[in-house]
Amino acid sequence: MMAAEEQLRLAIFADIHANRQAFSACLDAARARGAERMVCLGDIVGYGADPEWAVETVMGLVEDGAIAVVGNHDNAVVSSSESMNAEAQAAIEWTRGRLSAPQRRFLAELPLKHQDGDRLYVHSEASHPARWQYVRSTADAARSIEATDAHVTFCGHIHKPALYSMSAAAKLTSFIPTSETPVQLLGGRRWLAVLGSVGQPRDGNPAAAYAMLDTKSQEITFCRVPYDVVAAADRIRANGLPHWLADRLLIGR
Amino acid sequence: MTKLSILPGTELDGFTVGECVHHGGMATLWSVTHPGITVPLLMKVPRVSEGEDPAAIVSFEMEQMILPRLAGPHVPGCFGTGDFARQAYVVIERIPGTTLYSRMGELPIPYEEARVIVGKIAGALADLHRQNVIHHDIKPSSIMFRPSGECVLIDYGLSHHNLLPDLLQEEFRLPYGTAPYMAPERLLGVRDDPRSDLFSLGVLLYFFTTGERPFGESETLRGMRRRLWRDPQPPRKLRPDYPPWLQEIVLRCLEIEPVWRHPTASQLAFDLAHPDQVKLTARSERLKRDPLSTVWRRRFNGGMTQPKPKSDVAVQLASGPIVAVALDTEDGSGPLNECLRLTAAHLLATLPNARLACINVLKLGRITIDRTVDEQGNNKHIDRLVALRHWASPLELDESRLTVHVLEAVDPASAILEFTAVNQVDHIVIGARQNSMLRTLLGSVSSKVAAEAACTVTVVRPPRSAVAMGQAAVGG
């Protein structure tokens, strides 16, 4: 049952990956659009060169009422049991050394998922949040949607935006969202919104990605923000992180 | 959850339900009122209950998403929607009158009347396609006309919006729609080609002018699939007096491959507005269907059955604009006309589906009685048409992409602007008059066109000549 809810404009960010330039640009853009509450879908760190700033910023947002859940990179920094590719692992080791004890504690205490009314926030997908599975297909989306009673699940992790829905007859639709076109999340079906990445887009568009949700009209708008990619890439190189992590920002792959 | 029952007198989100207007298979229509809205209103409530066709639900969801996004005179205004979670409904503007279905008893209707009606529908489709929506259910009962004459397209339950999720895409294995009007590519699951609507409109035009449906009324998938390889009887076989230009248009709409149809609804509307300028091909004279060898080749050598890359509505429309070049044919306009031709050539080279309309204004005096015949008895109008064709010949355009028009008017700029609006021109190319004396006296046609046109305008000037550069230098 969808109760008529007071209007609230949410800004949702996934996969910030310690990219200060990208996250700053997204926060500014979201505030300019009237964002009243922030949601962070995890992977605050990893890959990028400004982990302290990123964690500190999210900690500040959470103090002001933002919701945040943990991502696999955040988890790897504080648990060291993850298996990752060499470049990601190198960034994790480097990040671990940069964060303060309170910052690491903040990451360690983030929940795997957070349900707020009929909205569920999770980093990877809802069926097994701790397995960090990617949503690549309608079958993956169906598994996530079936694992929750939420009307809309928001996730990230794959760094490519997508919007899935399941009808009352359990049929799935998939859609690659068009930036700046609001889509009404119709009440008769259930939805999985996969957000693009703030700090490391991989859909061929280097602009930072986030989304806005209007809780009254139930409209989601996928947004892209151009930012100073070159500065973010230079920071990665200057800190001795693998060069590919800088190069991929420029092409959005 | 408890469902509200809609009855006369029910209040819902500020709307008061009145009488039941229509009780159909998919939905019930109620007249409703709202204190803040003066337009007559209809509330469309889907008929949904346990065990009923899920298509009714999905179709309703599509309307609920698409209707609030549409604007303009060719769609019903949308004033509110309600969700399945409580009570599903859409409130739309009530268009007075009946749908085109009411004409079914009178078929065939006169060619001229059909030309005007279908021209208006094509114009409405062009407007819809520009809003990124493919209707996918063009048929007489989806078409109404405002008292002012504008065509209104109703029923968006099967439509596709290029920027929104397509809830019908994966919902049903069989194509959903109205069998006699469905384009062949729809049978292959293609939902993103706006030319599918042109095919359906071709079926309607054929039906309204011959009294027969080109592909019969078969509702079976097997019967419908025949249109993937079998062309319809040419209308001239059914009606020997069928005008060749009309058969040219109808059979082009009904081409099996979308790429052989008109590139855009605007271009179809353009042809219907200018029947004397329709390029007649072998289609126009045909009295028989394609030989069996062709049909067999189509059926067994792939063709239509090959998968196609996904297309984008906006990109496709942009590749087939109507470009108008406004030309002077007077003496002394030679260098400027050269430049206009070069500009037109550059535009057309990148837009293989564009069509070019060459226009010239035959200026009439405000008070004098004009003579359309000069001292030697030559018809000025015809002379200018010849001059326009002569100007265009170096472009070596296919005849189907070129039209020439002489407009008679007191005010050239207004005439060009009116032509642009009526024919949905996408891009005007016009020369700036060089003679500053004349421009001071008469005002600049190009600046008025550039300021007031609703489309892109390119104002062309000849390259700076040595003389002009000298003047500029002196003038500082």
Written description of the protein model:
The complex is a heterodimer of chains A (253) and B (476). With 253 residues, chain A is of the alpha/beta class. Helix content of chain A is 33%, strand content 21%. Chain A is built from eight helices and twelve strands. Chain A has helices spanning 20-32, 51-63, 72-79, 86-98, 101-108, 138-146, 229-238, 243-251, and strands at residues 9-13, 37-40, 67-68, 113-116, 119-122, 152-155, 162-166, 172-175, 183-184, 190-194, 208-214, 219-225. The N and C termini of chain A lie far apart (40 Å). Chain B has 476 residues and is α/β, with parallel strands linked by helices. The longest helix of chain B is centred in the first third of the chain and has 20 residues, at 111-130. In chain B, the strands form four sheets. Chain B has a six-stranded antiparallel sheet with strand order 1-2-3-4-6-5. In chain B, strands 13-12-11-14-15 form a five-stranded parallel sheet, with helices on both faces. Residues 469-476 of chain B have low confidence and may be disordered. The interface between A and B is medium-sized, with 21 and 21 residues.
With strands numbered from the N-terminus, the spatial order across the biggest sheet of chain B is 1-2-3-4-6-5
Major sheet of chain A:
6 strands, mixed
Series of secondary-structure elements of chain A, N-terminal to C-terminal:
EHEHEHHHEEHEEEEEEEHH
Indicate the low-confidence ranges of chain A by residue numbers.
none
Q: Oligomeric form of this entry?
A: heterodimer
Strand content of chain B: 15-25%
Share of residues in helices of chain A: 25-40%
Number of contiguous helices of chain A: 8
Average pLDDT level of chain B: 87
Note the total helix count of chain B: 16
| First-residue to last-residue Cα separation of chain A | 40 Å
CATH topology of chain A: Purple Acid Phosphatase, chain A, domain 2
Largest interface (CB within 8 Å) is between: A-B, 21 and 21 residues
Helix content of chain B: 25-40%
Shape of chain A: globular
Structural class by secondary-structure content of chain B:
alpha/beta
